[in-house]
Amino acid sequence: MAILVTGGAGYIGSHTVLALLERGDDVVVIDNLSNSSRESLSRVEALTGKTLTLYVEDVLNRDALKTIFEQHKITDIIHFAGLKSVGESVQKPIEYYENNVNGSLILLDEMLSAGVKNFIFSSSATVYGNSEIIPLHEGCKVGGTTNPYGTSKLMIEQILSDVALANPELRITCLRYFNPVGAHPSGKIGEDPNGVPCNLLPYITQVAIGKLTCLSIYGGDYPTKDGTGVRDYIHVMDLASGHLAALDHKDKGASFKKFNLGTGVGYSVLDLIAAFENASGISVNYKIVERRPGDIAECWSDSSLAAQELGWKATRKLDEMMRDSWNWQQKNPNGYLE
Ligand code: NAD
Ligand code: UD1
Predict the structure, then answer these.
(1) Whether the Cβ atoms of residue 290 and residue 284 lie closer than 8 Å to each other
(2) What gap in Å lies between CA 4 and CA 74, rounded to an integer?
(3) Looking at residue 277, what is its pLDDT?
(4) Ligand 2 atom closest to the CA of 197, numbered from 1
């Protein structure tokens, strides 16, 4: 009995694999390493003292999936594999739809053939678009995504809902992540962005360590408490435990479920800088520039459904997120490249 984790070598995947191994689950990973390296999983094995099976393959490769389902008694799938850069998705829409949507379709098809019943999908708060309702709850309208990445998540959620309707024996869960940050407290695994980071916290830590010179704050004139964008930052270890809670919940409730995974608290860009400076003792050089196209003013979660149904709540606070991100950055200035 094993859990198949697609994209398990990536940022959220590696932390979730660690949590699964720690509690004694057997884990099989499929990852094409397009945005990750084997090193993350080697470190997960070293941290846990457990081993896992890694297939360096693409989820679009049916034969590879068939082999995995033949070789292992898979009971559950956690589907992280996907491309995730918003800006790149605007430049390369076909690649994004092919990888994210087709990859999910092929995986689902092979999963059905293999008789696997439980599926957890990495969705995103981006499916809510620019909602007028804050905090966002699962009943809020979805849609209005502004880029192919976000639209691919919305399309996959729709596909999953249809597949669940046609196959009521399945248990499909969409987890809508808010803004994942932080790293394992050991500093051995963490987020390793390619090139210049697009997301806020990796940019801040790279300015702090001297790899980048100045953070551009995208907009100081939003209708928020200090004019900068407000988001719901969640520690990646809390996200990992959210997946475990969703796995444990699988036999209860409807065949198709969706849950927000956030803290329920919104922090501005300036809040984040202040918290980071406090945790690191380093002052971050920044300037306020134009808004970034496609950004929304504020977004945070109502995560009470996950609390009620999954018995899950994010417990790590902002200072812990900052401390662990900084620890990872300091110990791995070049990410997984030694
Ligand atoms: P990541 O890029 O670190 O991890 C994704 C992993 O999938 C990588 O290891 C990559 O090599 C692999 N992969 C990509 N396409 C593949 C394919 N076709 N076949 C096999 N492997 C493939 O990203 P992450 O931050 O860990 O995100 C994991 C999932 O969560 C993604 O689906 C992402 O869209 C979603 N998500 C992420 C965030 C975030 O801010 N990090 C927010 C919301 C949702
Ligand atoms: C982005 C994606 C979203 C994705 C999420 C998590 C966009 C438009 N949205 O969300 O689809 O689900 O990442 O991966 O890209 N900021 C700066 N300077 C920077 C970087 C960011 O001021 O250099 C600000 C942003 O304007 C925003 C906040 O920091 O207010 C967070 O930005 P970011 O980390 O990119 O996440 P989101 O925009 O929330």
Answers:
(1) no
(2) 6
(3) 98
(4) 23
Where do the structural domains in the chain lie, given as residue ranges?
2-183+233-264+299-314
pLDDT tens-digit series, residues 37-67? 999 999 999 999 999 999 999 999 999 999 9
Q: What is the CA radius of gyration of the chain?
A: 19
Ligand nearest to the CA of 288: 2
CA distance 229 to 237: 24
Distance 292 CA to ligand 2 centre (A): 9
Please confirm, yes or no, whether 149 is among the known catalytic residues.
yes
The pocket around ligand 2, CB under 6 angstroms, is made up of 86, 124, 126, 150, 179, 198-200, 203, 215-218, 229, 231, 269, 292, 294-295
Predicted TM-score (pTM) of this structure: 0.98
> What confidence category does residue 254 fall into, taking pLDDT thresholds of 50, 70 and 90?
confident
40 CA: nearest ligand 1 atom: 9
Q: Determine the average pLDDT of the residues in 261-269.
A: 98
Cβ-proximal residues to 303 (8 Å cutoff; 6+ apart), any chain: 259, 260, 261, 262, 263, 264, 313, 314
Q: Does domain 2-183+233-264+299-314 have CATH number 3.40.50.720?
A: yes
- Tell me: pLDDT of 338 over 70: no
Question: What pLDDT does residue 327 have?
Answer: 98
pLDDT in tens, 126-144: 999 999 899 999 999 999 9
Q: What is the mean pLDDT of residues 238-248?
A: 97
pLDDT band at 92 (very low <50, low <70, confident <90, very high): very high
Residues 157 and 175: their CA atoms lie apart, in Å, by 10
